[in-house]
Amino acid sequence: MFTTIFAQETLIPLWLQILPAAAWVALIMMIAWLKYRFTNSETEIIRKIVHIGTGNVILIAWWLNIPAFVGIYASIIASIITLLSYKFPLLPGINSVGRHSLGTFFYAVSIGVLTAIFWPIHHPEFAALGIMIMAWGDGLAALIGKRFGKHKYQIFGSQKSWEGSLTVTIVSFFISSVILYSLINNIPIVCVISLMVALFATFLEAFSYLGVDNLTVPIGTAIFAYVLTRL
Fold it and tell me: What is the DSSP letter of 28?
């Protein structure tokens, strides 16, 4: 198991694989810090810049075939930093959500879990699918729901809007369709699977107690999509 995870052949030097991913994350964090430091942007906007922006690093890892151990180690380090940041001001403006939430921690954990699951079986695209749905679907849902959400509903003390949930469905369907079409050259099948994944993502996102959707949405949709493509 561990041999499979930690040994991947590549023709690109490891540091050249890691550099673009590290540079991208550093850029996103810098943009978020500058907005926090020099503008009056709402905390939620800053959080979503990081939420959406850092999620895209999974695409870089997939396209450059970054070894699994890099993603796993990075996830562990990020998880530790986010846990510490709940007690110490390491990530000002990022973990402040106006409620008790472990969302940022769960987000970091989900990247490591999906890397450990899908890199060894040579299907990193499903890890990318799950993380991108979390990054863009959940990220845009929060922004659109806050700005345009007029029709509210509540689950486990977490308030959602139908406008935000619809955003999750639409974005998840688009992301799933694009990624799955690269695997299945059959538009009707891709559309059916993508719709099922999108509806499942919307269901999981609605249950976001303590930010657990940052764990259940990416892992759940990735595994669900993988299973559906094997039927």
Answer: H
Terminal Cα distance for the chain, rounded: 25
CA-to-CA distance for 10 and 8, rounded, in angstroms? Answer: 6
* Extents of the domains making up the chain: 67-230
**Cβ atoms 125, 181 nearer than 8 A:** no
**Are 12 and 65 a contacting pair, CB within 8 Å?**
yes
Summarised one tens digit per residue, pLDDT across range 21-78 is 999 999 998 998 888 788 776 777 888 888 899 999 999 999 999 999 999 999 999 9
Give the single-character DSSP code of 102: -
Q: Which residues contact 155 (CB under 8 A, 6 or more apart)?
A: 206, 207, 208
Which pLDDT tens digit goes with each residue over 167-198?
A: 999 999 999 999 999 899 899 999 999 999 99
**Residue 86 CB coordination number (10 Å):** 14
Of 38, 59, 35, the closest CA to residue 47 belongs to 35
151: region left, alpha or beta (phi > 0 left; psi from -120 to 50 alpha): beta
Query: What is the residue type of 209?
Result: Y
Owner of token pair 């106006």? 98
On whether the CB atoms of residues 71 and 111 are closer than 8 A, the answer is: yes
Q: Which residues contact 174 (CB under 8 A, 6 or more apart)?
A: none
**Best CA proximity match to 82, nearest among 99, 104, 101, 97:** 104
CA-based torsion, 122, 123, 127, 128: positive or negative: positive
- For residue 134, give the DSSP letter: I
